[in-house]
Amino acid sequence: MKSYIKTIIVLIVFSSSINAQEQRGLTGDDNWLSLWTEFKPDALNYNDNTEILMGNITEDITLYKSHTYLLLGNVFVTNNAILSIEPGTVIKGDFESKATLTIAKGSAIIAEGTLTDPIVFTSNQSVKKAGDWGGIIILGDGVTNKQGESFAASFYPKIETSNFVHTNYGGESLKNNSGYLSYVRVEFAGGKTKKTNETNALLLAGVGPETTINNVMISYSAGNSFGIIGGQVNLEKMVSYRAKNIDYNFDYGTKSNINNSLALRSPYVTSGTSKCIRAASFVGEDVDFSMEGTKVVATNMTLLADADDLEYAIEAGLIRESIYVGENTNFKIESSVISSFSKAVSLHENIIFNDTNLSRIQVKNVLFNNFKGAVFSKYSHESSEYLENWYANPEFSNKYSKTTHSLLFRGLNSTNNRDYRLRLNRNIVMNNVNK
Fold it and tell me: DSSP assignment of 268-287, as one string?
């Protein structure tokens, strides 16, 4: 009887261990990437355009699945209007005009696709490439730490002076609601011109916590995939695939949570200086330092770089760090998987290492796979050694491994049924228990 009870206790302990391991990286009883995602969007053909969207939309409007829409030029939804989009609707961004869709402050978008019928924003080109069109810009009246009035005009590939007023964002609202984005794909966006400093496939500026954003996949952005400025944003089940720039860029005092999300980078597509996650409080000095800085909490993230020859890609500078944290910034990553980068997390050189600052930068229960170093400072080698020792403390429960992605994850062979949840061999675990 005692032997039986002891066996039960051991099984419970190992079951708990399995559950703890399962909590790292993407989670879910089912593979939530199935059906609605697309990892080869360039191979898809859509119906010819039947409707054109252009100019300013000043009244409530619905886009229907029965039509295929061409987004032409800079389209602004203004005057508190609501843009609703049926599941399965396809909107093509125009290449020549580097089309954009903007939800101006006070207006909203209701884009709720389904698991089997996602809403698709894509390129109108027969041969599609990153940056074929501009992207989607959602502007709210949430709080930022920028000085004075803020305008997003610099993020447009092309913009008319008369539309500057519609690019205003930010305010004092703590409950901004700019609508819904769910089961949405955005492909080949992030287009730019020589005058464009930075672009995003999806820019959220001053967007508040009552805005619902989940199950959004951005593929082949020529700029950032997701740009978040100020506001309070909750993101869940996001996918950034082969962006040229940053996958998730948090800036200017945003208070953001991102959960159960994926970034998959290729050194042959992306910039060597870009990251999966960038969390910073300012660029230059155009901020109000009396305001709170950026705060990001990232849980159950899977951040990967895919390279045929990882060592060469790192030595050639094609792959660097996965995460960058700027000064005056709170950042926490927990229960996540980071694999195949030169370093996992880099800290701004001005960050002084003391208990206060390091308590603001938390790295817990993270699996680091195929790394030369986990956390480092741009300041000095000695500082990086200090950080390595700090975050290697057993109380943080960080683990290290060295294996291939095909062995690490459950299913990467299928093009459109990829499963980036950690692979767990229960039989091996149970055999060890029985021994």
Answer: TTS-TT--SEEE-S-STT-B
Q: What is the pLDDT of residue 140?
A: 98
C-beta neighbour count of 392 within 10 angstroms? 13
How far, CA to CA in Å, does 335 sit from each of 259, 286, 332, 339, 367?
Answer: 10, 34, 10, 13, 8
| Cα 55 to Cα 32: distance, rounded to the nearest angstrom | 36
Contact (CB, 8 A) for 388 and 376: yes
Coil, helix or strand at residue 58: coil
Which residue from 300, 292, 376 is spatially nearest to 333, judged by alpha carbons?
300
Pairing of strands 200-205, 135-139: parallel
Predicted confidence band of residue 349 (pLDDT cuts 50, 70, 90): confident
108-112 vs 179-187, strand pairing mode: parallel
What is the chain's alpha carbon radius of gyration, rounded to the nearest angstrom?
Answer: 22
Instruction: Tell me: pLDDT of 19 over 70.
Output: no
DSSP H/E element including 303: strand 295-305
Distance (Å, whole) CA 269 – CA 243? 7
Mapping DSSP to helix (H, G, I), strand (E, B) and coil, where does residue 62 land?
strand
With beta carbons less than 8 A apart as the criterion, state whether 415 and 429 touch.
no
Structure tokens at 198: 């930075």
Q: Across residues 136-161, what is the average pLDDT?
A: 94
Residue written as tokens 């870009």? 274
pLDDT tens column, 299-340? 999 999 987 777 767 776 677 889 999 999 999 999 999 998
How far are the Cα atoms of 253, 286, 347 from residue 283, in angstroms, in the given order? Answer: 11, 7, 15
Mean pLDDT in the chain? 88
Task: Collect all residues with Cβ–Cβ distance below 8 Å to 428 and sequence separation of at least 6.
Answer: none
Q: Are 130 and 221 in contact (CB under 8 A)?
A: yes
Please tell me the distance from the alpha carbon of residue 425 to that of residue 405, in angstroms, as a whole number: 15
The SS3 call for residue 18 is helix
Contacts with 416 (C-beta within 8 Å, 6 or more apart), sequence order: 37, 38, 39, 40
